[in-house]
Amino acid sequence: MQRNMSIIGVPMDLGQSRRGVDMGPSAIRYAGVIETLENLKYNIADLGDVAVSRPDSKDNLQEGNLRNLKQVFECNQTLAEMVDEEIAEKRFPLVLGGDHSIAIGTLAGTAKHYENLGVIWYDAHGDLNSGETSPSGNIHGMPLAVSLGIGHEKLTNILDYAPKVNPENIVIVGARSLDPGEKVLIREQGVTVYSMHEIDRLGMPQVMEESINYLKRRTDGVHLSLDLDGLDPEEAPGVGTPVMGGLSYRESHLAMEMLSESDILTSAEFVEVNPILDDKNKTASMAVGLIGSLFGEKLK
Ligand SMILES: NC(=[NH2+])NCCC[C@H](N)C(=O)O
Ligand SMILES: [Mn+2]
Ligand SMILES: [Mn+2]
Questions:
Q1: Of the residues 33, 47, 71, 218, which has the maximum number of CB atoms within 10 A of its CB?
Q2: GO cellular-component terms in the record (predicted)?
Q3: Is 138 close to ligand 1, i.e. is its CB under 6 Å away?
Q4: Active site annotation includes 263
Q5: What is the C-alpha separation between 142 and 287, in angstroms, rounded?
Q6: What is the CATH number that goes with domain 4-294?
Q7: CB contact at 8 A, 141 and 125
Q8: Of these residues, 84, 125, 152, 253, which one is catalytic?
Q9: DSSP 152-197
Q10: Neighbours of 3 (CB within 10 A)
Q11: Tens-binned pLDDT, residue by residue, of the chain (300 aa)
Q12: What are phi and psi of 43, to 5 degrees?
C-alpha cells in the first residue's frame, strides 16, 4: 500500500435531515486518527476540511425530490477535484465524513484513475436510490446509484464523465435495509450483496475472502466506503440512520484486517459518524480503531 496518505475531512450534513454528522471529521480527528496512522509509519498530510455551504432553508427539497442538491453538488465537486489531485500525486486518499453523500465526490475523483474500479460498500443500506425511488429525498441514500450514472445529472456528471463504476465491480457488505427500488436495481445491474443473511450463514471470514478474491480478479483498484451504520447500533450508536441487527465490532475488525492483508485498497472513506447522537465519542473511536486495523495494526 501507498505510504503517503492524505486525509480530507468533509463536514457535510446536508445529504440527510439530522444535524450533527458535520462534526464527524473533528470527532474522528479527536479520537486520534492521525496519531494512529503515524504510529503505523504512514506519511500523513491532513488537508483539513472541504467547505460546505449553508442550506437555503430548513426543509430544502429541491428539484426532483433532492434535499439540498445545490450545496451537496458544490461540496462533492470540490472533494472530487481534491481526491483526483491526491491520487495523481500518488497519495492514498482517506476521506472522513460527513454523511454518505460525499461518496459521490470521492468516487468521482477516484474512478478516473482506474479502468475498472472496485468498490466495497460496508453499510446497513444500499444507497442505491434516485430522486424517483427515494423515500426521503436524502442524497446520502443515493451515492452508489449516482456512481452507476443513475440520478440527477448534476451529480452523476461530476468531473464530466459517467458512469464512474461498473455495477459488477461493487460488493455491498452488511445490508439489512433496502428500499424496493434498490432491490430492483441490485437485481437488474448485477451488484453483489452480502446481506446480514449471508454473513450469518457464511461468517465474515468467508464473506471477505470471497469479496476480496472476486474484486482481485476483475478490478485494478478498490475503494472502501465504510458507513458506520453497517455496525450494530448497540456498539456504534453515533449514526443518524441506525438499523438493528448489524455487524459486530469484532466482525468489522476482522474484515479490516483481511482487507489490510490483501493489499487491494487504493482509497477509503469513513462516513456517518454523528457526535451528537454518540456516547462519549465511542463511534468515532471505533472508526479510528477500524482505520488502524485497515492500515496494518496487528495484535501481535
Ligand atoms: N448513507 C445512509 N446512511 N443512507 C441511509 C439511506 C436510508 C434510506 N434508504 C433512504 O434512502 O433515505
Ligand atoms: Mn447506511
Ligand atoms: Mn450509507
A1: 33
A2: cytoplasm
A3: yes
A4: no
A5: 22
A6: 3.40.800.10
A7: yes
A8: 125
A9: -HHHHTGGG----S-GGGEEEEEE-B--HHHHHHHHHHT-EEEEHH
A10: 12
A11: 789 999 999 999 999 999 999 999 999 999 999 999 999 999 999 999 999 998 887 557 777 889 999 999 999 999 999 999 999 999 999 999 999 999 999 999 999 999 999 999 999 999 999 999 999 999 999 999 999 999 999 999 999 999 999 999 999 999 999 999 999 999 999 999 999 999 999 999 999 999 999 999 999 999 999 999 999 999 999 999 999 999 999 999 999 999 999 999 999 999 999 999 999 999 999 999 999 999 999 988
A12: -90, 110
The amino acid at residue 79 is: L
The finding on whether 129 has its CB within 6 A of some atom of ligand 1 is yes
* CA of 63 relative to ligand 2 center, distance in Å: 24
- Rounded distance between C-alpha atoms, residue 74 and residue 99, angstroms: 15
**Residue 94: strand pairing partners:** 7, 268
Rg (CA), the chain: 17
Copy the grid coordinates of residue 209: 475472502
Where in the chain are the domains? 4-294
User: What are 44's three cell numbers?
Assistant: 500523513
CA pair distance 134, 144, nearest whole angstrom: 13
- Ligand located closest to 225 CA: 3
CA separation for the pair 181, 258 (Å, rounded):
32
pTM to 2 decimal places: 0.98
Give CA–CA dist 60/71, Å, rounded: 10
- Assign residue 181 a region: left if phi > 0, alpha if psi is -120 to 50, beta otherwise? alpha
Q: Give the strand pairing for 4-10 and 92-97.
A: parallel
